[in-house]
Amino acid sequence: MKLAIVTAYPPSKVTLTEYGYHLVKHFRLQEEVSEIILITDKTKGEKDLSFKGDGCKITVRECWSFNSYKNLFAITNVISDTKPDAILFNLQFLKFGDKKVPAALGLLLPLICKLKGIPTISLLHNILEQVDLENAGITKNKWLQKAYNFIGSTLTRAVLTSDIVAVTISKYVGILEEKYKARNVALIPHGSFETPPEPSYSLPKGPKQVMAFGKFGTYKKVEILIEAVELIRQRTQEDIEIVIAGTDSPNTPGYLNAMKAKYSHVSHLRFTGYVAEEDVPVIFNESAVVVFPYTSTTGSSGVLHQAGSYGKAVALPDLGDLSVLVREEGYKGEFFNPDSTESLAAAIQHILVDESYRIHLGQINYMAACSLPMSTITKMYIDYFEAIHFAKSGGFALNLLKKLEPIESEV
After folding, report:
1. Residue 409, pLDDT score
2. Whole-number Å distance between alpha carbons of 219 and 255
3. Element (H, E) at 177
4. How far is Cα 163 from Cα 345, in angstroms, rounded to an integer?
């Protein structure tokens, strides 16, 4: 199978870059895949293809850019030129831009591929029905929110023309089936990027690192984390370093620089900037606790799966998709009220001062991560692609693809 994957890819700063990297890393090892056509965004640096071990051929076609009006045509031309046997889109609603027209045009691609007769799976990491448009930094205007919801519903219908739409949270399946009467939605878990050998759960010498990882400024806010750690410092003797690992959200450029200035008086506060893929294990392994300073959620959390892979304790808000994910996939953390600095301080402090509790949380999260490795997730996609090919050859109707769901329940 010549498989095309449309995704942002390192060293890109566009959303879902890390997930795209790990999709490629594990699809290349599936025996059914003879070649991957990586249809990705343009970057100044070379694409990171430094994988260990054997794997199939990977052909890189850099052809699109964030917020470009030409993406639809550029990607379509590459698809026509390379003639893949199947195509996987790694999507969310602001994948191709945070401007209305480029974002909307990009989400029409699954419809075009379906019209071309190419077996198509769209992995949709979030659905607009579950996105808080104000917290996500899209718009505070209530009338514009209604307009966005209408446009979002229209674009969702376009994505749903895919042979299969994969979502990572069970709640999304119910929403899409009920609202859009869709019968081609499959639950395929997010999966864990890496499953390294079980860690020792010990910490390096020096300050205990309290780390947040991601793109900040919209619904991910560092103020509450910094102020919570300051509270802990006032009432304990804990030696703590605050690590903000990541960059600004595309919707809030300059946010982290503003936070550096605002909290310049805070000691042991480190902003790492962009974290390259090879540096991710170091950031996680050195952390005592991974914190999720979120005010809302927009889908499954790659950071939670990464924290689990490295056996880390987590402090997270009990809200939205994070709550569902923790309960469905077996993760465990110390919950806090996202509107309360004191609540977050109590959650972090409980983990930092109780060594056995920190290790217990890390062990549970490591086991949860190991139960859903990306090798298993990519095999699920292969099974669906094979079923689509079988259906197109007259084997059975596409709405019977739901019969594949027992494959997922085994993990």
Report:
1. 35
2. 12
3. helix 170-180
4. 46
Reported as a single tens digit per residue, the pLDDT across 51-79 is 877 899 999 999 999 999 999 999 999 99
Average of per-residue pLDDT across 83-103 = 90
Residue 400 has a CB neighbour count (10 Å cut-off) of: 12
Contacts of 345 (CB under 8 A, 6+ apart): 228, 229, 231, 232
**Domain architecture of the chain: domains with CATH:** 2-191+373-409 (3.40.50.2000), 208-370 (3.40.50.2000)
Write the pLDDT tens digit of every residue in 269-283. 999 999 888 899 999
Per-residue pLDDT band for 15 (boundaries 50, 70, 90) equals confident
Residue 306 to residue 166: CA distance in whole angstroms: 21
Q: Mean pLDDT across the chain, nearest whole number?
A: 88
Task: Please tell me the least confidently modeled range out of 135-139, 141-145, 346-350, 356-360.
Answer: 135-139
Spatial separation of the C-alpha atoms in residues 239 and 93, rounded to whole Å: 41
> Taking a C-beta distance cutoff of 8 angstroms, is the pair 14, 8 a contact?
yes
Q: Annotate 118-129 with b (16+ C-beta within 10 A) or e (fewer).
A: bbbbbbbbbbbe
SS3 at position 161: coil
H helix runs in 2-52, sequence order = 17-27
Cis check: omega of the bond before 84, within 30 degrees of 0: no
pTM above 0.70, yes or no: yes
Check whether 255 has a pLDDT greater than 80.
yes
Ramachandran quadrant class, 171 (left: phi over 0; alpha: psi -120 to 50; beta: rest): alpha
Higher pLDDT, 170 or 348: 348
Distance CA 130, CA 133 (A): 9
391 vs 242, which has greater pLDDT?
242
User: Rounded CA gap, 25 and 190, in Å?
Assistant: 15
Distance CA 157, CA 180 (A): 7
Q: How far apart are CA 105 and CA 69, in angstroms?
A: 8
The runs of H, that is alpha helices, within 249-318 are 255-262, 280-285, 302-309
